[in-house]
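Revision sheet: C-alpha cells.
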Amino acid sequence: MEPELRPAVEEESQPAPTPNPAPHPSPQHDRDFDWVFIGPHGLRAGWSILLFAALYYLFREVIGTLFFAAGLVHDTPADSAGAVLVAELVPFFALIAAGLIMILIEDTSIDRRIPSYNLAGPRRIRHFVSGLVAGFAALSLLVAALAWGGWLRFGAASQSAAQAAAIGALWAIAFLLVGSVEEGLFRCYALSTLTRGINFWWALAAQVAICLYLALNGGGNGAWGVYAAAAIGFFPCLALHQRAAARSAFWQAAWVTSTFFGFYHTSNSGENWIGIFAASFMGFVFCLSVRLTGSAWWAIGCHAAWDWAETFFYGAADSGLQGQGHFLSANPAGNPLWSGGADGPEGSLLVLGVILLLLLFLLALYARNSAAQPAD
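Predicted:
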C-alpha cells in the first residue's frame, strides 16, 4: 500500500516564519549601572555618607565664614562658655542643613524627616533626662575614684553662687550643642544610614582606611586607641557575619561609627591613647543606647552631662581641653596612666571601668524592654 501523498500546495499554504524583530533598547538597559548608586532603600549608604559629609563641611565653611565676618567666632580656639556656645552653633546649623538636603535626595518613596535619623523613638524626654543623670553620675564616680587614689586634687570654688549659676547655664547650653552635634553626626545620621546598607566587608574596609590614614599622617594624638578599637571589634563582627545573624548590619555600623568617633578626637591636643580608646568605647555605649531605647536622646543627654560635669562642675580637662570658668578646680597628680595627665579624667585607665559600669547600667535599665519589642 502506497503511502498517502499530500499535495504540495498544502505545504505552500503554511505561513512562512517571520524573523524576530530587532530588539529595541529598553529603559532597563539604560539603567544597567543604576545599582552602583541606587539600592533597595534609595541612594546607597556609602554614597549617602560621602555626600552628607561633603554637604556638612561645605555648610560649615559657609556658616563659619558668615559668623567670622560678623565677629562672632575667631581664629583662636574658644575655651570660655560663651565662645564655645557660639562656635558650636556653626556645626549645629551645618548638621541641620545637610540633613534637610539628604532627606530630599535619599529614598523619596517614604516620608523621611529629621527625626527619622534615630530621633523618633518613644519616651524621648524620659530617655534624655535619664541620660543626663547617668552622664553626671558616671563622671562623678570617675572623679571620686581618682580623688580617692590621690590622682586628682581639688581647689576651692573661686566664684560666688550667682556667678557659678550663670556660667554653669552657659556651659550647659554649650555642651547640649556639643552633644547634639556629635551624636547627630555619629549616632543619628551615620549610624542610621550605615545600618541600612553595610556588611562586614565594607565595615572592615572602613576600619582599614581609618587606620591607614592615621598611620600615614603621623598618627595624631592617641592613635593607638583607634587601632585598639578597630581590632577589638573585628572578631565579634566577623562572627556575626559568619552566622548571618539578624540585625548584624547595626553592629557593623556601630563598629565603624565608634572607631571613627575615637578618630574624630585625635585632633584634640593633650589626648592620649587611653582617652581615644575611651571615646570609641563610649561611642559604642551610645550606639547600644540607640538600640535599647529606640533613639539617640539618652546618648545626647549623657554626652552633654558628662562634658558639663567634667569641664564646669569639677573644672578638669576635657579630652585635653581646659575650659575657662568653672565651679571647682581639679588638677591631675601622680602617674598620668592613672591620673589622665593633660588629657583629664578621660585619659585615666579608670575611665574604662566606669564606662563598663555605664554599659551594664544601660543594659539593666533598658534591655528587658528592648527584648519585648518585635524584631525588625
